[in-house]
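Query form — protein Zinc carboxypeptidase superfamily

QUESTION: What is the three-dimensional structure of this chain?
INPUT:
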Amino acid sequence: MTELLTRAEASNYTETSRHADVVAFADELCRRTKLARRVDFGKSGEGQPMVALVLSDRGCFTPELARKQKKTVVMVEANIHAGEVEGKEAVLALARDLTLSPLGKKLLDKLCLVLIPDFNPDGNDRISTSNRKLNLKDLEGQLNPAGGVGTRYTGEGWNLNRDSTKQEAPETRCMAALYQAWWPHLFIDCHTTDGSIHAFDLTFDTSHSNEPLFAELRHFNRELLERVAKAVKRRHGFDSFWYGNYRSEGEPRSGWHTYPALPRFGSHYRGLLGRLDVLLETYSYIGFPRRCEVMRAWLLELFRDAAKNAAAYRAHTEAEEKR
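ANSWER: The structure tokens for Zinc carboxypeptidase superfamily are given below.
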């Protein structure tokens, strides 16, 4: 049987997947394994299918079955900003590896993974070498694949990571319905960041909007991130740290700070719902293949942590539901 490759892998990381590639990859994966199912959850602003891949064993492909089988639900959103394509490629490759190799056997017994590889299909397909072009003078852009990447905005001009409160974009409303249906214990949002020059392959964060409301949950969320960062370093060799930038650009001694805790940002919105949330930002000034590798490593170790500590994930989120 022909090896199933992403467009990035097949092109030796000179290109990124178009939405048609994502859909074709998902369909072929579902044809090859009973551990994956494609679930469409709406249409983009320009009418493209919004596609999720659900991975689990025992035919656990619905929210109802996940609850009945007491699975820990982990939802991953990639490509919300379609110039930041590493999550898209990592999600597809990891979905394949978890279902077509022994890698996911123990994980899929405990977890139900709901993976959205391309949340911004219309922005994704506006691929150009001009998008997110590297500009070190202004600390913008990234080291792109030679074939270019998509746009930050949707085809209709929405920035989906500023739309969580108003939910004006059709993509945001589709995601909100999917989230409410599955009510994941853990949500992971995949990005790539420019900005300050530092020494880390990936920076991570969680919601800051929930500090006064969900102190115990937030403490657990931060602990799991520290734990996973150590696992990523130990097993994969990547360096990671909390997300942010220098307070005064170019002056490390000025301090390190993160972004505003406003609920228009996805992570801060979800933090108000009493669920676990993770923001992943690969570092734009390392090469495209390495960014895909570190994103894959982080996703895998987050899945491993969720499976190993499934009871704790469920207990903390369920406690907030009852409080």
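ADDITIONAL NOTE: DSSP finds eleven helices and ten strands in the chain.
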